[in-house]
């Protein structure tokens, strides 16, 4: 093995033919695993000369209390702003924050939770949309529930329907509904929506709220009005490109996140659509950079730093394993230059 690059847990999982979560469970000894899978993982670890991260092992035995934060992508301003709130409260209380990005990989999320259990983290925060996936829910609950029974504190951001944990729940549905009502008030009647994958709870809530607000006024969205991409800037760009290619006649486009709206703004300009003269554009979250776009983005504002602070306050106040607390945070429509009153055609 001399001269070989450092062997990772992912290498062990791949060689053993098991998931990252299963490899983590075997090597951390935290969860029961079938004997045949255990033998495969241990054999792969031996063959690859896998060495666990000594710094992580040191943390496991450290007296300094730690909080593990698992999010989809810390480079996304949505997650970064929430993490800032988490770190502020953690710092004020002498806690060390360990941050991990899953990049939307469900197995990694489960594996990171397993690792944090093994390292005896004082608390685990899950900051990211839940997946509409029963197998994922079951595997995540199998990690979270014994951790809570053992005294570990858990808080999640957004809706996790079948996970017993304290929750900070931004009002995605009501915020999107209020945005729909505001756009109707500006005279818009033809809409398109740019969404991320509809397996994510945050996408479903915002899409449901927006379509519900339109339906109350007799305006209905069909599948032809919805353009799906990844839940990031490039996904917004791709979804807006599809919208243009379809020749859609919407006068208002709603992107379910501000980051998607940033990509959409570029695509609309490249496609010869002026914002807001030809088409109005709105997002959701009110991340800091959207105020400086040209034109500045109409959006639904969430108190993102407060979301992180509330999540930390929940774990610091110490919930009970058999009970789950919910803190709801309001959303507010902020009208800016990217939307305008619809001009009547002569």
Structure characterization notes:
The protein is of the alpha/beta class. Among the domains are: 1-52, lambda repressor-like DNA-binding domains (434 Repressor (Amino-terminal Domain), Orthogonal Bundle); 172-303, Rossmann fold (3-Layer(aba) Sandwich). Helices cover 44% and strands 15% of the residues. The chain contains twelve helices and twelve strands. The chain has helices at 9-16, 20-28, 35-47, 54-60, 77-92, 106-118, 134-149, 172-185, 201-216, 233-245, 258-270, 304-317; strands at 66-71, 96-101, 123-127, 153-157, 166-170, 191-195, 226-228, 252-255, 280-282, 299-301, 326-329, 332-334. Strands 2-1-3-4-5-11 form a six-stranded parallel β-sheet, with helices on both faces. The longest helix is centred in the first third of the chain and has 16 residues, at 77-92. It starts with 8 loop residues before the first helix and ends in a 12-residue tail after the last strand. Mean pLDDT is 87; it is low at 54-63. This is LacI family DNA-binding transcriptional regulator. Residues 7-61 form the HTH lacI-type domain. GO terms for molecular function: DNA binding. InterPro entries: HTH_LacI, LacI/GalR-like_sensor, Lambda_DNA-bd_dom_sf, Peripla_BP_I.
């Amino acid at each position: 093995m001399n001269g070989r690059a450092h062997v990772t847990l992912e290498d062990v999982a791949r060689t053993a033919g098991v998931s990252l979560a299963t490899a983590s469970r075997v090597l951390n000894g935290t969860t029961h695993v079938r004997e045949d899978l255990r033998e495969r993982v241990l054999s792969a670890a031996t063959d690859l000369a896998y060495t666990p991260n000594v710094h992580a092992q040191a943390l496991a035995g450290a007296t300094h209390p730690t909080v593990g934060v698992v999010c989809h992508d810390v480079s996304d301003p949505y997650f970064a702003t929430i993490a800032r709130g988490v770190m502020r409260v953690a710092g004020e209380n002498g806690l060390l924050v360990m941050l991990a990005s899953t990049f939307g990989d469900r197995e990694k999320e489960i594996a990171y939770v397993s690792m944090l259990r093994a390292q005896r983290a004082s608390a685990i925060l899950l900051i990211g949309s839940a997946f509409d996936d029963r197998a994922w829910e079951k595997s995540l609950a199998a990690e979270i529930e014994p951790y809570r029974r053992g005294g570990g504190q858990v808080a999640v951001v957004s809706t996790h329907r079948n996970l017993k944990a304290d929750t900070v729940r931004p009002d995605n549905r009501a915020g999107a509904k209020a945005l729909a009502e505001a756009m109707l008030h500006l005279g818009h009647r033809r809409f398109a929506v740019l969404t991320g994958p509809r397996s994510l709870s945050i996408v479903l809530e915002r899409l449901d709220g927006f379509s519900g607000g339109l339906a109350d006024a007799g305006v209905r969205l069909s599948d032809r009005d919805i353009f799906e991409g990844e839940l990031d800037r490039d996904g917004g760009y791709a979804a807006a490109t599809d919208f243009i290619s379809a020749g859609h006649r919407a006068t208002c486009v709603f992107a379910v996140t501000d980051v998607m709206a940033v990509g959409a703004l570029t695509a609309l300009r490249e496609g010869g659509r002026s914002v807001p003269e030809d088409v109005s554009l709105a997002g959701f979250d009110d991340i800091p950079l959207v105020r400086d776009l040209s034109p500045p983005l109409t959006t639904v504002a969430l108190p993102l730093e407060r979301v992180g602070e509330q999540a930390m306050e929940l774990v610091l106040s110490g919930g009970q394993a058999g009970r789950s607390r919910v803190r709801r945070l309001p959303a507010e429509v902020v009208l800016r230059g990217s939307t305008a009153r619809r001009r009547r055609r002569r």
